[in-house]
Specification:
This protein has 530 residues and is of the alpha+beta class. It has three domains: 2-142, Orthogonal Bundle (DNA ligase i, domain 1), CATH 1.10.3260; 205-400, D-amino Acid Aminotransferase, Chain A, domain 1 (2-Layer Sandwich); 404-529, Nucleic acid-binding proteins (OB fold (Dihydrolipoamide Acetyltransferase, E2P)). The chain contains 19 helices and 22 strands. It starts with a helix and ends with a helix.
Amino acid sequence: MKNFAQLFTQLDQTTKTLVKVAALVEYFGKVDDEDRLWAIAILSHRRPKRTVKTSLMRQWAAELSNIPLWLFEESYHVVGDLAETIALVLPPPTEQHDGSLSHWIKVIKNLDKKEDAVKKETVIHAWEGMTYEERFVFNKLITGGFRVGVSQKLMMRALAQFEDQEENAIAHRLMGKWTPDTVTYDELIRSESAMDDISRPYPFYLAYALEQEPEVLGSVEDWQVERKWDGIRGQIIVRDDHLFVWSRGEELVTDKFPEYHPLAEILPNGTVIDGEILPFRDGQPLSFNVLQTRIGRKNVTKKILESAPVILMCYDLLEYKGEDIRTTPLRKRRALLEQLVVNHPNNILILSEVLELDNWQQAADERDQSRQYLSEGLMVKKLDSEYRSGRKKGDWWKWKVDPLTIDAVMIYAQQGHGRRANLYTDYTFAVWDDEQNLVPFTKAYSGLTDKEFNKITAWVKKNTKERFGPVRSVNPELVFEIAFEGINESSRHKSGVALRFPRMLRWRTDKKPVEANTLKDLKKMLEVYG
């Protein structure tokens, strides 16, 4: 645990990519295969599940620290992070533990279904022999909330350096439904048979946002332009007469989409298609809100299948006749994809339309019409590009339509987390109803600069009306422009609407609260864009 805690500290204290990669390589060289495997799992979001309630952790920490629970809770509101608060209030260690990362992971996992008294004894014993850094990491792991400032991409780069393998090969090995309980480090990283898992997807290729005029890309003839659809990115895999459906979040979702099951008999073995799981009816896409009715459900009923039918909007072909063709230029992969879909007719696979354009102005015109197609904008892909792993600049761009916006009044503020724990950064916004009452309709916490958050925090402290734990009701005086990607009807919200991806576009210091938008304005937007 000492080595992993040291790694966490190194990663948390720098923003430099090379330093992070070097720290990871050094860590991989210090520890055994079991610890390496668990570190890879944790950094690729395969954390052990929570086995102890956070409410119990708070009680035990307050008791061991000999402080009242209310004082612990007040400290937590100031610090903003439970794991860090516990590590800060605990008394100095009385002994020294030398257990490895994998040892403490086993301890954490073994607590599942144990009596609370056993959990308490185990956790307190762990705390008593750990430094602040070790306690912090242990608390993060046991509460299931471990996050660190390093991307999976950087972790894979470091692992590729350590193992002297290609980064793309490492990325592919780490795809799929593996855990440290089902595979060893050798089997996952070094074994030649690691790639034999017939369900294994390919790493997704992700696009960067195009923030310049598209003319900088050169001639439009060198690019494939298609609509950016608003669904769930996924891969359809058919191998050995079996079908597998993977989401971009590396979740195997085959059972969630029974519409795709016939593809196991329709498509030839050795086929992998990249596309969008898209709600679709009568030749038209449906809103993402329709797809949300299926997300998270354990059972997909006949009623859900009828109300939220899906197709796969096909973007790319990654494997053809059992051969990995990702290094083949896009224009050839597209031709093979078209041939595959045409030669195996069905009502599940639909080719994403390639727009016929003579110039970039025509592309801009198509982008401006995106919402009438329930599209988010355009995808712009170089015709001679390979299908790469992760987010890479240069060959694939997403050119999204400008967001919808509305001016709203801030009515509640809450402190943030992590480095923003002492700042009020999470806000609730409202618009005016017909009786000139403010009706809350959304929350947002991103989009402003640190300087702006500092100014608003100072204002919140001087303009608080009431306190509700960590939340403060404030005077309705500040106006913000809220940007969002979509709007849907919602019975769960008092306003009757829910926004998709809300964020603060800017602080409207030039506007008074009475100039903010109304609930009627939101309803009109719902009629047009909902």
